[in-house]
Amino acid sequence: MSQSLTQTRYTISEVEARTGLTQHTLRWYERIGLMPHVDRSHSGQRRFTDKDLDWLAFVGKLRATGMSVADMVRYAELVREGAHTVGERRELLERTRREVRSRITELTDALAVLDYKIDMYAMKTVSGKAQQ
Amino acid sequence: MSQSLTQTRYTISEVEARTGLTQHTLRWYERIGLMPHVDRSHSGQRRFTDKDLDWLAFVGKLRATGMSVADMVRYAELVREGAHTVGERRELLERTRREVRSRITELTDALAVLDYKIDMYAMKTVSGKAQQ
DNA sequence: TAAAACCCTTGAGTGCACTCCAAGCAAGTA
DNA sequence: TACTTGCTTGGAGTGCACTCAAGGGTTTTA
């Protein structure tokens, strides 16, 4: 757990550029407890570390799963509470995983319907028959 | 295009039971133009047909793709406008299909991260090491 | 030194997709 | 007849995830 002396610190604009999240969103994430406490400069400006960027990347993956912000905040709380919450964290991720799997199934089904419909239209464009 | 004389007509409660959509949502769909005009009884109550149920099932698939309500309404308008809108309808569905495909990719990626993280926790539960 | 660029906070506003409410009409049952 | 159930409308309210505004401090550039 040693720490480099030349640790890079990023301003909020730099983090915005790197993550694609707006400054508004980054501040909001901190406000609602979705970020571990972010370091500040002597004048009170945020200075993000690479660790913060890693966390944001992970949060981005959780967001991509469709997990609600409330659940992501819950997860962040559990991380802050320490090692004894590992079981609950895993449960949260496992539940999310089940939801993602069923979402993928649902999307795949819908995709098949879309394919079918598009094929119909492809025929219609030539034959001129009516359709829903 | 022949029509049965014993055509089944459903009340809004029956449609609610069959589709899982609430009565509120069904009325709202009609209000915003997402339904073709629904038949009424002599006293003004809605009487849905099997064709309406088919349409709702299709709309359900579109919703499952993540298509916005605005786009679904646009699609419904195009259907009402007739056969000459077939090209635009197909474009709309093709755009949706591209979005669904990339959403599936995104979910699959996120799923891999989830799997990885859950595996880590599985180890942690035994070894007791700290983690994000 | 002055202007421009950047950052801060609190609190309000936005867009989406519903979801509910109030007031009232109509049909069926005791 | 009285009551219950089910349906109607227009409009207001809700929850989510941001997104923006106002007013002010700080840092960099000309």
TrEMBL record, chains A, B:
Keywords linked to the UniProt accession: DNA-binding
Domain HTH merR-type, residue spans: 9-78
Gene3D superfamilies, sorted: 1.10.1660.10
InterPro entries: DNA-bd_dom_put_sf, MerR-type_HTH_dom, MerR_fam
SMART domains assigned to the protein according to its UniProt record, in alphabetical order: HTH_MERR
Pfam families hit by this protein: MerR_1 (PF13411)
Protein name as catalogued: DNA-binding transcriptional MerR regulator
